[in-house]
């Protein structure tokens, strides 16, 4: 059976091969709500319907927030968190639609699936194909084709530091040039910074209505567009593309070797990064953890379904 390799899947294996196996092969998903994934989906959905011309600003907000409707808060804390994230997401979608530069779009949510080639021989991998979904592609006034990526980030300044080595941008430039059969000028990265603002509280009680908070948050964004929004052009050299193609082939060979040995490595340096790996109870063999803390996903690649997260 041919397996699809996406940026998210490759990146997860770089983080920890066991994590990638549990997520993509065993299809285990934590039962706990992943706010980052949920908000990313809402954000992308809102911008997608707007970029397709299917909705105006209000329609885009409604489409984005509808993706959060499945979340059923189990206590007051979760209900507060959900309402807070709904408003933050709404404000980000509205602000993006009002301030992103208009682009001449040639494709929206472009999904691709292409053979992975051995750079030395041109031979196709029989086991793996490269896949993904690009937010959009646009043309500049000279007819050059660009990848268009819409991102949210905790810090625009820190996010910009990732441009140079971003595997996702390299992979999309490489894949799009093969899909369209023409060079890709680079990537336009549109980023919006998330706000940490919350409704006003006094003595532990919320004293600002959600409507007033939404207005205050939007005012904060509108007053500081340079702080909250950036649009940058990121390019890749031929050498970077060649290096990526070599590493992509190596990725396939490492996976074949891993399957042959039947051994999946644990990257224990990652277990406690970024708030901790959700699969830690499984790796620690906590009794009953697999059944009580995880569910079996019907899909292998969430990133290829509705939306890929930022
Ligand atoms: S807990 Fe550690 S070893 Fe286990 S999947 Fe997560 S990162 Fe890998």
TrEMBL record:
One Pfam family in the UniProt entry: PDDEXK_1
GO MF terms, alphabetically ordered: ATP binding; DNA binding; helicase activity; hydrolase activity
Ranges where the PD-(D/E)XK endonuclease-like domain occurs: 5-283
GO annotation (BP), single: DNA repair
Alphabetical keyword list: ATP-binding, DNA damage, DNA repair, DNA-binding, Helicase, Hydrolase, Nucleotide-binding
Xref: InterPro entries: PDDEXK-like_dom_sf, PDDEXK_AddAB-type
Name this protein carries in UniProt: PD-(D/E)XK endonuclease-like domain-containing protein
Organism this protein belongs to: Alicyclobacillus acidocaldarius subsp. acidocaldarius (strain ATCC 27009 / DSM 446 / BCRC 14685 / JCM 5260 / KCTC 1825 / NBRC 15652 / NCIMB 11725 / NRRL B-14509 / 104-IA) (Bacillus acidocaldarius)
């Amino acid at each position: 059976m041919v397996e699809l390799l996406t940026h998210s899947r490759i990146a997860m294996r770089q983080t920890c091969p066991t994590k990638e196996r549990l997520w993509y092969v065993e299809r285990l998903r934590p039962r706990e709500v992943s706010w980052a994934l949920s908000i990313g989906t809402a954000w992308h959905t809102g911008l997608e319907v707007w970029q397709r011309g299917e909705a105006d600003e209000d329609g885009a907000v409604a489409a984005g927030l509808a993706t959060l409707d499945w979340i059923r808060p189990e206590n007051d804390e979760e209900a507060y968190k959900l309402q807070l994230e709904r408003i933050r997401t709404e404000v980000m979608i509205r602000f993006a639609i009002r301030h992103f530069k208009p682009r001449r779009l040639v494709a929206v949510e472009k999904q691709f699936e292409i053979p992975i080639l051995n750079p030395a021989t041109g031979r196709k991998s029989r086991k793996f194909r490269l896949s993904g979904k690009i937010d959009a592609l646009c043309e500049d006034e000279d007819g050059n084709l660009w990848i268009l990526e819409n991102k949210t980030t905790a810090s625009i300044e820190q996010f910009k530091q990732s441009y140079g080595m971003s595997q996702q941008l390299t992979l999309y430039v490489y894949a799009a040039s093969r899909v369209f059969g023409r060079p890709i000028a680079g990537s336009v990265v549109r980023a919006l910074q998330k706000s940490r603002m919350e409704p006003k509280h006094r003595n532990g009680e919320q004293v600002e209505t959600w409507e007033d908070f939404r207005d205050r948050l939007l005012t904060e964004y509108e007053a500081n567009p340079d702080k909250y929004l950036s649009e940058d052009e990121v390019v890749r050299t031929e050498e970077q593309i060649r290096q990526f193609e070599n590493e992509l082939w190596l990725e396939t060979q490492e996976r074949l070797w891993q399957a042959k040995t039947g051994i999946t490595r644990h990257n224990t340096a990652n277990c406690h990064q970024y708030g901790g790996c959700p699969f830690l109870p499984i790796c620690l063999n906590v009794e009953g953890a697999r059944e009580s803390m995880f569910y079996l996903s019907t899909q292998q690649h969430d990133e290829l379904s509705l939306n890929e997260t930022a």
